[in-house]
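Contributing new records

If you add data, match the layout below exactly. Sequence lines come first and carry their own label; structure lines follow with theirs. Keep one chain per record. Anything else will be rejected by the validation script.
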Amino acid sequence: MYVTPILYRCKLATRLILLLLCLIVIYITPGVAQRELSGAAQAKLALDQLNVVGSVLMIAAHPDDENTALLAYLARGRKVRTGYLSLTRGEGGQNLIGSEQGDALGLIRTQELLAARRIDGAEQFFTRAIDFGFTKTPQETFEKWGRDKILSDVVWVMRRFQPDVIVLRFTGTPRDGHGQHQASAILGKEAYSAAADPARFPEQLQYVKPWQAKRLMWNAAVFTPDQEKETEKEHNKVVVDPGDYDPVLGHSYAEIAGMSRSMHRSQGMGSPERKGSAKAYLMPVSGDPASHDLFDGIDITWNRFPGGREVGRALADAARTFDPTNPAKTVPLLIAAQKAMAQLHQPLVDFKRQELEDAIALCSGLWLDATADKFAATPGGSFRLSATAVNRAKLRVEVASVDVASDVAGIAPVATKDTGGELPFNEPKTFTLDVKVPANQPLSQPYWLREPKQGDTYGVPNQLEIGMPENPPLLRAHFHLRLDGAGVEVVRPVVFRYIERAQGELTRPLVIEPAVTLQWTQRSSLFPTASSKGLELQVKANTPGVKGDVRIQPPGGWTAASGSQSFQLSTSGQESALSFQLTPPSAETKGALQASARVGDENIAVGMETISYPHIPPQVLFFPASTELVRSDVKLAARNIGYVMGAGDEVPDALRELGADVVLLGAGELAGADLGRFDAIVAGVRAYDTRPDLRANQERLLKYVQDGGTLVVQYITPQFGGRGGGRGAAAGRGGQPGRGGQPGRGGDTAGRGAQPIRDEHIGPYPIAIGGGRVTVEDAPVQLPNPASPLLHTPNDITARDFEGWIQERGLNFASEWDAHYQPLFESHDPGEQPLLGGTLYARYGKGAYVFTAFSWFRELPAGIPGAFRIFANLLSAGKTL
């Protein structure tokens, strides 16, 4: 049958709405061990929320930029539909809980935001922008993102969400600090008008309509009493108080905000659950002014819709007569509202229609659940599903049918043949369905990672996917019910439900995975000489009885002793290690070593990473089965390395590529082991922030240095004055050793007079850590002390060793230091003063101490040749005295 383009677009738009509504169901279904025990309270809140049809969209740049107190107040308190649009997924930040960076970190932070939204009640959206790291200007941000590209995404979300009020978290001025913060407000202001203009991004109008929000507001950041006093003086502001207590919830919205914000665990954002007043201030930016309330002049009742009065009357009666001891009494009124709502057709009404059907199921006491026999299947495989319905109230409920469908192309829908009939009281009724996975079914890659990146934005060709927080569920079960003679459809995602003995009953999403996955044991492999060495590839079976051949493709100039090997794995989960001998060229070079497996007619060239943390559902990420080969002449004088892991990084594996024997040091080793057996000890990123045992054993470490050892300390978070510019404070103001305001000190902060250095107690002599950072990865680097032995032994360091770096030079540079320290490098962002505090070296007793805030945790795993050479010299510092 021929489908006209207009009809096809309408079907796509309808599919988008249904897909989004299904995602809302997921948001309120925890994937981790969270339990909601307030059934009647939840029903009461659902009824109150049905009576309100207003909406607010908050816009900022990153995970953690949102005001969770204001979100909770709006979503849980005012009961309006509330969304948070984060332009990025936070890929460029640091990770406090593990070693994931880049794409994997973005996936973690996406799920942390969704976990936060399940608590504060808001929804989550994103653009295609990638967090490329700290930047000091919106100009650089727009150069990397493409201004119109991300503007179109913001407009798309506004047109799709249709907010009555838009709230910006930033001003779009230098006061915001981070260039991406500024960009979020600049784009928000422009999109406010552009979303209403049909001439702007007209290609979107086949799915959505232009939309003009009533007003645009700025949520002023207030962190101190002085800031609050200044804000109170502002005119035309709207003041709300998320500190208000909600007796149904049993918490204030500020308390809920603390719970929500604490989900940002990869950023160490554990927050207090504040009691008492916690005012939020909203300043007018554009649109109709509001004098008393955020929704002044906006009808947020059902009267805003033609024909909506009858719906509003039924829903108001349902909320007014709700009996928490017998919620099922409310169902007839909800059925009446459903019949009246059937005559209305608006995007917001469609959203409320889904809320209504969920409220009917909630008040009726129905348990509806759909689970699979396993969490993963391979192309050509299958799932066996169990759809279960339990009537836990004494209503007459009939299951007309259950069908399972997918928003993922290729998987055909299936339906039960058994109509089910009337559900008996409190007896589970289970329907079994088998779903076949096509042999050519794509893998369950996050949608924004399926296509190659386009610079610092994701390639998302499907307009309907832009803005979505995550993939829709692989399968959805539709329960077609009859309650009180009315038809009701309730949709549930199909999940894998399992028992984890330490946590209890958990769920995880379903995924499609390949028959086998391939993973090199190293992200990059260094060849410090022209000698050959073996590289190991792990082959893992995801289905039983799989066999095939692995082929590798070395880059030009590299040779392999064997280009292919066979494998045979009998059970699912079994792994086999294949070793390939590689010989590098004599000249320095880099290139990717590719691997692929031939299994039957299928060619597989991916590895698989499962990300699992207690606070988020398990996530699966696929990546190319390749490793970076690096041929670079690198010498190392220190062979035995002790490593104190901090927030988590991949530096130890990189050091092993240098030929070092690396031992991870736990609390017991730091306290009692013979440290003298190590040529060097390295403190990982933020180790002094996350390892109390490290600070507790500082004297032992300094004694180790005094006796001839080398201690290398990577960047830490400043302990004085907060983050000191981590999110936008200006960099240090320059300075030379001995010019920090008094004789015998150095630093990038001048003019402190005779004040003592704010010692962080991480070295043998005082060091103060500031907010200085160099965000431009190819910023020039000078050598202020070119005669230093650390620049010549065992490797001669030149400007060439700073070529090809990624994301940044470094962060949290030292701002002041004792004159015993010698700066090794000077660098700065364009137009700023020189910064010397990135790497400091001092002799102490018979040994050497190095503080270095350069981003080795990024550069070494990425296989940057110069990073290996420089870090080898730092490790060898005690051998060069």
